[in-house]
Amino acid sequence: MKIKRMHWALITSVIFLLSVNLEAVETKIGVDIIRKAELNATGFKDMVNRVSMTLINAEGSVSEREMLIKIIALDKGESKTLTVFTKPSREKGFALLTHSHRSTADDQWLYLPASKRIKKVASNNVGSSFRGSEFTYEDIASQHRDHYRFDFINTETCGDKTCFVIDRFPEFDESSYSKTRLYIDTEYYLVQKGEFFDVKKTLFKTMLASNYTKHKNGVWKPESIVMENHNTHEKTEIRSLELQFDVGLSEREFSKLSLRKIR
């Protein structure tokens, strides 16, 4: 009986060790895939992108906006982003400044042109809608990989492509998602789809990226990103209209003081 107990204990230990090793391997694979995907979206000093934002409600009514997005890359994978609405007139001048950090949560400030006030986005509001769209402040933040854990799930067909399936789990309390399931194609390592699960672990939103272009500097960018809310059946599409790299932006353009100079 003693030998049997020892034999069972040994089997249990081996199973435990195998499961731990498997989880470690899957996590390592997941992070490696994410690193390769990130390489496709980086490699520039700065970027200016004029984009349209189309809001589509459940009845099919459409609301159009335009924004100018400026990004400057910093050391250690950090960055600063300034998003300014340019159309229509009722939205013109509204701006969001994001300072992305590697080891700490991002800082975000809103500029409200009507009152000329600068308002910091509280950490417990990152899950709020960005100007009535299906994108939240969390969605448009940096989402640095050091803030998440990645688990490789499997490889499966997504549309006309084969994709790696990676589950991304936030490792910060303020996230409005329990996880995001990412579909990254196995050929070019481009994010094709994201499924966002709420804190109740229910599918909440789906994001689709399409019409990727590889630019001269080797950076890949999608022409269109669509976010669909499965609860409200509303959608928001962000479409790139004019994209430029390395235009010589200065870090001074990404300060809180610069927000008051927006026209």
Category from helices, strands and their pairing: alpha+beta
Strand order of the largest sheet: 6-5-4-3-2-1-13-12-11-10-9-8-7
Mean pLDDT: 87
Q: Based on DSSP secondary structure assignment, what is the total number of beta strands?
A: 13
Q: How many alpha or pi helices?
A: 2
Quaternary form = single chain
Largest sheet: 13 strands, antiparallel
**Strand residue percentage:** 35-45%
Task: Summarize the amount of helix as a percent range.
Answer: 10-25%
User: Helix and strand string, N-terminal first?
Assistant: HEEEEEEEEEEEEEH
Alpha-carbon Rg, integer:
21 Å
Sequence stretches where pLDDT stays below 50 over 5 or more residues = 1-25
Give the N-terminus to C-terminus distance in angstroms: 83 Å
Query: What is the global morphology?
Result: globular
Walkthrough of the structure:
Helix content is 17%, strand content 44%. It contains 2 helices and 13 strands, in the order H-E-E-E-E-E-E-E-E-E-E-E-E-E-H. The chain has a 13-stranded antiparallel β-sheet, covered by helices on one side. It starts with a helix and ends with a helix. The relative contact order is 0.17.
